[in-house]
User: Fold this.
Amino acid sequence: MTNSTVSDQVAQPGAIAIEGITEPTILQYFEQFNAAEFEAVSQLFAPEGVMNAPFEPAIMGPEAIAAYLHQEATGMTLLPRQGVIETIEEGSTQVQVAGKVQTPWFGVNVSWLFILNAQQKIVSATIKLLASPQELLNLRRP
Assistant:
């Protein structure tokens, strides 16, 4: 038995529960990310899908997204807390999620903004760090 919420979410498939979010694609994104199944995460994106990660140019297409996640996201755990879903236009859905990202070295509050097409594929995922400039500078110190 584990003591940590992070370990519980990673150890139990399907354990991700986000207040206000029932969209399967979004739940799979967080579950597969936390299981380090980056190929599976990338397949949730439409062929023209884009990931907008902090401090990076847009990463386009599932293959590039998978490569980026393998390089940059190994060891990260996503801890989504709550979210809101709204229909924005002709079958497209916008999903906003707030939570935290935990790395081996630090944790930081984050927001995710997903746009899903009518086929429930991610066409855009934007990740924003919710930290002050001073907090961000402190993250870079050894």
User: Anything to note?
Assistant: Helices lie at 5-11, 24-34, 38-42, 62-72, 133-140. Residues 87 and 125 are 16 Å apart (CA to CA).
